[in-house]
Write a structure and sequence with these properties.
The complex is a heterodimer.
Chain A (H helix, E strand, L loop, with lengths): L4 H14 L9 H15 L1 H10 L3 H4 L2 H4 L1 H9 L6 E5 L17 E3 L1 H7 L14 E5 L2 E7 L5 E9 L7 E5 L4 E7 L2 E7 L4 E5 L5 E5 L6 E6 L2 E7 L3 H10 L2
Helix pairs in contact in A: 2-3, 3-6
Chain B lengths: L1 H22 L2 H17 L10 H17 L25 H19 L3 H12 L4 H8 L3 H25 L2
Helix pairs in contact in B: 1-2, 1-3, 1-5, 2-3, 3-5, 3-6, 4-7, 5-7, 6-7
Classes of the chains: A alpha+beta, B mainly alpha.
Chain lengths: 244, 170
């Protein structure tokens, strides 16, 4: 007797849940241990770079080797949890900016406060803030009368266990170090850039936030903050320091 | 490193299941999945953002498991458990239907276990892990157009194994 394909396919789909699957082991500690062992064997400096840049290289494969000066800088950025900054040689591979950035679902301030396990900060002087929630990341948006976004602040607990964000910088952008509240931060000005992040299903997503392209990245307590604003560094720093 | 641990935890059950179908051994499946995650880490540069990470990872898991299975043509039995009591709904099967379904499951599990590891992997990825055809192409390392023929070859071997069993049966 021979079954038609679709019948057999249906039976196979039903079979999956019926099989006695072994209890999956937690492989993460062993995998980490082996990667650390590789690091010892390989030389810690180089390894730190790979660890820092690995997920960024998804987009910018090869650019690190082409830019030796950048290697040290990437290693130095290890101090900012959850954030990876990398420069690409060409903007060609970057997706065009999304008309509406994916910010999450629109919620009220109170709903956001109830949903996240940390106290998020906001600019007290800005009225009519839109609040978006994406997982445990809160984004505050202020719009110009035209509807264009003029200020965007994203914050999340910057533990690498939860979130991975990477910025891919096209050649037209500039980066400089700044100090905010005694902590190292970064100012990225110029062309729009792409954000890479890990979604709850373990897929790597990317989006490009459409703004003037000026971004301030810094840490405050256990939070990592990203402020995007169509203004210069001086004003961005003023806003950053005014967050309560 | 911590971000990668997170990725491992999100995909490790899937990786171990696929390796288990290929290898038929829990311990070997764990070893193969662990090795695959280490290899995937060093190969991250070849992953293109926007593609399916799961499918990309499955290609590495499948290769690792097949390499380990190559040493012998292993026949394994993919055991099924007796259908659990699904008494919650009105659609609960009659005891007779449940027994028939369990028997058919055992038969299928045995037939699947008799296939070559390569064919088992194709079936596991498509029907147990429900990869789309596009993801299948990535996981099998073939062109999207080839996925159908790979699947249909595996199905026809499975059908052959099922009818062999029938011939032996009284």
């Amino acid at each position: 007797m021979s079954l038609p394909d679709d019948r057999l396919e249906a039976e196979l789909s039903a079979l999956g849940p019926m099989l006695t699957w072994p209890e999956p082991g937690d492989l993460a500690p062993a995998v980490s241990e082996r990667l650390r062992a590789g690091r010892r064997a390989w030389g810690s400096r180089r390894w730190a770079l790979v660890a820092a840049a690995a997920l960024v290289l998804l987009l910018a494969a090869g650019s690190l080797t082409a830019l030796p000066g950048l290697r040290r800088a990437v290693a130095d950025w290890l101090g900012l949890p959850g954030v990876r900054v990398e420069r690409v040689e060409s903007g060609r591979d970057l997706p065009s900016p999304a008309a509406t950035p994916e910010l999450g679902s629109r919620v009220s301030l109170a709903e956001a406060a109830a949903a996240v396990p940390y106290n998020f900060v906001r600019p007290k002087s800005v009225r009519n803030l839109e609040v978006y929630l994406d997982g445990e990341a809160v984004t505050l948006v202020s719009r110009a009368p035209s509807g264009d976004i003029e200020l965007l602040i994203t914050q999340f607990e910057g533990t690498l266990d939860r979130e991975l964000v990477a910025k891919v910088l096209p050649p037209g952008s500039r980066l400089r170090g700044v100090v905010i509240g005694g902590r190292q931060g970064y100012w990225i000005a110029g062309d729009p850039h792409t954000v890479l992040y890990l979604d709850p299903f373990g897929e790597i997503r990317e989006n490009t936030v459409r703004l003037a392209g000026n971004t301030l990245l810094w840490q405050r307590g256990g939070l990592t903050l990203r402020l995007e604003v169509g203004a210069d560094l001086r004003r961005a720093l003023l806003i950053a320091r005014s967050l309560k | 490193m911590d971000a990668y641990e997170e990725l491992v935890r999100l995909h490790q059950a899937l990786a171990q299941r696929v390796a288990y179908v290929v290898l038929g051994s829990e311990a070997e499946a764990q070893d193969a999945a662990q090795e695959a995650f280490v290899k995937a880490y060093y190969a991250l540069g070849s992953f293109r953002a926007g593609a399916s990470f799961r499918a990309w990872l499955m290609a590495i898991v499948r290769n690792e498991a097949l390499n380990r299975a190559r040493s012998a043509s292993r026949r394994t039995t993919l055991a099924t458990r007796v259908a659990e009591d699904r008494s919650s709904g009105a659609a609960a099967p009659t005891p007779e239907a449940a027994i028939l379904a369990a028997e058919r499951g055992a038969e299928l599990g045995a037939a699947l276990g008799s296939l070559a590891p390569r064919d088992r992997a194709v079936i596991a990825l498509r029907y147990f892990e429900e990869l789309s055809e596009k993801e299948m192409a990535v996981a099998l390392g073939c062109r999207p157009g080839t996925v159908k023929s790979r699947l249909s070859r595996a199905l026809s071997k499975l059908r052959g194994a099922l009818s062999e069993d029938e011939e032996v049966a009284p």
